[in-house]
């Protein structure tokens, strides 16, 4: 609800008479950090919300809207099939959602511009570019918890850092004495499941 309110607030600010185009572009720039299922779903929902609902009141402001998805990995929807990754990428391109792959957000800074009415922020990216924004939603990174990282040398791990287990969730090499579950573990013989609530059901 807070995100929705922030989006509407950005449009209300951008609608103030006399607002510069430059500030409108910034206020109506939405950055989504992360290319996983949550980020992709949010980007699609945001696009639909803007095109179907917000357009009724602020149709003249839609030309200033920009949605950008920033993903540090090489593809959207990393844990999923390549066909689904490509589908999401093409769908976003069709909807004019800018996707930056193999790019991480390295910092966020406040800055001032003479004539701006509201505080401004920009995201610094690993490719050396800078994106100004009005709203940033961060849903990046499904990484192992710190405890899992702290025992990294004790157990065999998958390429994404998860502890290898057998079909009974027993840690490889420690069968019968140590078990690992959830996002910390992956079955060495099975296909890794996406780290989603729907899968856990």
Which geometry do the CA atoms define? Answer: elongated
Amino- and carboxy-terminal Cα gap: 25 Å
How are the strands ordered across the major sheet?
Answer: 3-2-1-7
Strand content: 15-25%
SSE blueprint and pairings:
Blueprint: H1 2-14, H2 21-27, E1 29-33, H3 37-58, E2 66-70, H4 82-94, E3 97-100, E4 105-111, E5 120-125, E6 130-133, E7 135-138, H5 146-150, E8 163-165, E9 185-187, H6 197-200
Parallel strand pairs: 1-2, 1-7, 2-3, 8-9
Antiparallel strand pairs: 4-5, 5-6
Task: Write up this protein.
With 201 residues, the chain is α/β, with parallel strands linked by helices. 32% of the residues lie in helices and 20% in strands. It has 6 helices and 9 strands, in the order ααβαβαβββββαββα. The longest helix is centred in the first third of the chain and has 22 residues, at 37-58. The radius of gyration is 21 Å and the shape is elongated. The model has no long low-confidence stretch (mean pLDDT 86).
What would you say about this model in short?
The chain is α/β, with parallel strands linked by helices and 201 residues long. The chain has helices at residues 2-14, 21-27, 37-58, 82-94, 146-150, 197-200, and strands at residues 29-33, 66-70, 97-100, 105-111, 120-125, 130-133, 135-138, 163-165, 185-187.
Highlighted features:
single chain; 201 residues; alpha/beta; four-stranded parallel sheet; three-stranded antiparallel sheet; 6 helices; elongated
């Amino acid at each position: 609800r807070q995100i929705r309110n922030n989006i509407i607030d950005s449009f209300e600010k951008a609608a103030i008479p006399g607002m510069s185009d430059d500030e409108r572009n910034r206020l109506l720039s939405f950055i989504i950090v992360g290319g996983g299922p949550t980020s992709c779903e949010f980007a699609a929902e945001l696009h639909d919300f803007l095109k179907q609902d917000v357009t009724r009141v602020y149709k003249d402001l839609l030309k200033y809207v920009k949605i950008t998805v920033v993903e540090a990995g090489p593809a959207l929807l990393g844990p999923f099939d390549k066909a689904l990754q490509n589908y999401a990428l093409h769908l976003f391109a069709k909807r004019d959602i800018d996707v930056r792959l193999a790019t991480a957000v390295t910092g966020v800074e406040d800055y001032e511009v003479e004539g701006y009415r509201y505080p401004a922020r920009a995201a610094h990216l690993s490719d050396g570019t800078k994106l100004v924004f009005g709203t940033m939603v961060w849903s990046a990174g499904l990484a192992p918890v710190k405890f899992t990282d702290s025992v990294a040398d004790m157990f065999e791990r998958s390429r994404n850092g998860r502890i290898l287990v057998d079909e009974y969730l027993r840690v490889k090499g420690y069968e019968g004495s140590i078990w690992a579950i959830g996002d910390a573990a992956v079955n060495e013989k099975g296909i890794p499941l996406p780290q989603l609530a729907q899968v856990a059901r």
